[in-house]
């Protein structure tokens, strides 16, 4: 059983059970079939065992209801003679010669919503592409009811008109049809592909659950506890830094952002370490569990959506757990800086100068630019492990939405890794666009009179790039680095589209997982050439840093022992004096005591 299914959150979203089959399952399953728009008219891809007569009957029935096969077109029909099913759900894929994985993924999501009022569904979309069919169907069928009641819609609603309310879904099981490889069983390759797609979909849905959880219930300490528990179940090494440890080790950025809240901040470290790794990657995700803007208070309208300001961290934790479940041959260190940005008498102020972990200082110009402040600490700490790659993601700037809209992430960083991450994201259906870090933007965040950095640029323009330039200052030499700003794509405030629901989308989990897989396959293809020359020096720095940390720990231990000895001597002295004290004043003595695939049949 997947670790994701054992997550302990106040309210979990639902996805149906999924399995493979090599034959049509029965009359109580609705059947999903793909349609294509060709130059010769409507064309279907059907299960090979269906008779020509049944295929012709279905094609005629769809033509009768004016089906064309255009992308995402839906037609729902009652049972057709010769096809054992409770209903037919036909979904369009457009031109049959131009069906990308994401075209199929989108169509599968649309079909899943159309099937929301059916209890069981069998899908032949898997004959086109198994991975895309599984991911699209499960992501499209995700339902999050939150604190709503359990009332379901009438069983007939959605037969003629697909249910638009995802909370109305009663879909419990989806069977994906694949050809038999022997003994009427799926091939080993199909089984592996299915399991990978299933784990990916579960990871995305878990990230959605985290983001959808209200901040009243998901705050730094509770979030850290949930993540730590799941991480241990997944076999990860888990480390949680509480506020005392953050203070002792100098995480000034995380502490500064969290100091206005009654809920103390945390830093969570999760490590996946396979037996024979081919590379190492640090993942860092912004975890602001609620963002009011702090003293630089946000406007009231829309502030409720700031429950999503920890979406980057949700994607990172889902990714590292999935990497462990898939046993990817890459060391993955995941870092989650968690804080709540609140205004209060103890909150940080514009004009403050803070010292980050690692020594860099920041002049605070705007307390609503807090994500980069906590990320700076986490990036600096992540670099001490000297990963080959560092990928960081955050719902960081409103400027991302202005520049790229609500569905396209901005990617900045080392050119080779940046361009590959943007390409991979777009290929898996999480649109991304590579962005530069121009010199004048960098100068805007590095030109403070009183600190190493300003936490905002000096211009009203290029805010997304200014945030990227700020983060770049914390990345050590020799590490290929990429920053994904997913302020728009991670949280959908409009209507459902494709396989994406309203609210949390789970982006960029699939981008991160696909990037890890690409690194596992060929790390040299994603590594920046400029990083190679710096790695020797960086490794020396890593040894130096570890030695320094060890020396600090040893020094701290000696100081604690010395303090303990002083206290012990003090207690002995006190006991001696106390023994004599009653002779002087009995009354004085009394007062002193109060103190965690295959081919189908074309028709």
TrEMBL record:
Choose any GO biological process term that the UniProt entry carries and state it: proteolysis
Which PROSITE patterns does this chain map to? CYTOSOL_AP
Question: Which stretches are tagged as biased composition: Basic residues?
Answer: 538-551, 569-587
**Its encoding gene is what?**
pepA
The answer, when asked if Manganese is one of the entry's keywords, is yes
Q: Where is the active site?
A: 298, 372
- Entry GO MF terms: manganese ion binding; metalloaminopeptidase activity
Query: What's its EC?
Result: 3.4.11.1, 3.4.11.10
Q: Which residues bind Mn(2+) 1?
A: 291, 368, 370
Keyword Kinase among record annotations:
no
The molecule here is called: Probable cytosol aminopeptidase
What cofactor is this protein dependent on?
Answer: Mn(2+)
Q: Which SUPFAM superfamilies does this one have?
A: Macro domain-like, Zn-dependent exopeptidases
Give me the Gene Ontology terms describing cellular component: cytoplasm
Q: What is the lineage of its organism?
A: Bacteria, Bacillati, Actinomycetota, Actinomycetes, Mycobacteriales
């Amino acid at each position: 059983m997947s670790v994701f299914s054992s997550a302990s959150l106040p309210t979990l979203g639902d996805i149906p059970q999924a399995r493979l089959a090599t034959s049509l399952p029965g009359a109580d399953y609705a059947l999903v079939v793909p349609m294509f728009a060709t130059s010769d008219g409507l064309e279907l891809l059907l299960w090979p065992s269906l008779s020509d007569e049944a295929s012709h009957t279905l094609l005629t029935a769809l033509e009768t209801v004016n089906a064309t096969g255009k992308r995402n077109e839906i037609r729902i029909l009652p049972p057709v003679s010769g096809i054992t099913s409770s209903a037919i759900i036909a979904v369009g894929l457009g031109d049959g010669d131009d069906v990308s994985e994401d075209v199929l993924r989108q169509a599968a999501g649309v079909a899943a919503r159309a099937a929301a009022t059916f209890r069981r569904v069998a899908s032949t979309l898997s004959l086109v592409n198994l991975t895309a069919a599984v991911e699209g169907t499960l992501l499209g069928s995700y339902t999050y009811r939150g604190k709503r009641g359990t009332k379901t819609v009438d069983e007939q609603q959605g037969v003629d008109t697909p249910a638009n309310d995802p909370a109305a879904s009663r879909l419990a099981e989806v069977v994906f049809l694949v050809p038999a490889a022997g003994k009427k069983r799926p091939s080993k390759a199909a089984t592996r592909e299915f399991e990978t797609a299933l784990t990916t979909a579960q990871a995305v849905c878990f990230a959605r659950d985290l983001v959808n959880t209200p901040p009243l219930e998901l705050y730094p300490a509770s979030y850290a506890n949930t993540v730590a528990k799941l991480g241990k179940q997944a076999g990860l090494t888990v480390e949680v830094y509480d506020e005392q440890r953050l203070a002792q080790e100098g995480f000034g950025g995380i502490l500064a952002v969290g100091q206005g809240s009654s809920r103390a901040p945390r830093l969570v470290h999760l490590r996946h370490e396979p037996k024979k790794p081919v590379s190492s990657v640090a993942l860092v995700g912004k975890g602001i569990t609620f963002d009011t803007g702090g003293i630089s208070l946000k406007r009231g309208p829309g502030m409720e959506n700031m429950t999503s300001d920890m979406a980057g961290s949700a994607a990172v934790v889902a990714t590292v757990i999935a990497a462990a479940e898939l046993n990817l041959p890459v060391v993955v260190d995941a870092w989650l800086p968690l804080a709540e940005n609140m205004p209060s008498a103890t909150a940080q102020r514009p004009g403050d100068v803070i010292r980050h972990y690692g020594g860099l200082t920041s002049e605070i110009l705007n307390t609503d630019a807090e994500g980069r402040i906590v990320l700076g600490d986490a990036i600096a700490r992540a670099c001490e492990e000297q990963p080959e790659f560092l990928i960081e993601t955050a719902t960081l700037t409103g400027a991302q939405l202005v520049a790229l809209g609500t569905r396209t992430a901005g990617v900045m960083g080392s050119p080779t890794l940046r361009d590959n991450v943007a390409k991979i994201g777009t290929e898996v259906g999480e649109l991304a666009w590579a962005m530069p870090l121009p010199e004048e933007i960098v100068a805007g965040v590095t030109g403070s009179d009183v600190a190493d950095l300003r936490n905002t640029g000096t211009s009203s323009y290029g805010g997304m790039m200014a945030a990227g330039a700020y983060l770049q200052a914390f990345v050590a030499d020799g590490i290929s680095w990429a920053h994904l700003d997913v302020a728009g794509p991670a949280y959908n405030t409009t209507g459902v589209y494709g396989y994406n629901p309203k609210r949390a989308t789970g982006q960029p989990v699939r981008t991160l997982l696909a990037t890890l897989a690409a690194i596992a396959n060929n790390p040299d293809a994603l590594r920046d050439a400029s990083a190679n020359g710096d790695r020797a020096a960086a490794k020396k720095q890593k040894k130096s840093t570890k030695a320094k940390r060890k020396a600090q720990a040893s020094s701290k231990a000696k100081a604690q022992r010395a303090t303990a000895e002083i206290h012990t001597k003090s207690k002995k002295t006190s006991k001696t004096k106390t023994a004599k004290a009653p002779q002087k004043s009995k009354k004085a003595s009394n007062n002193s005591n109060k103190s965690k695939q295959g081919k189908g049949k074309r028709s």
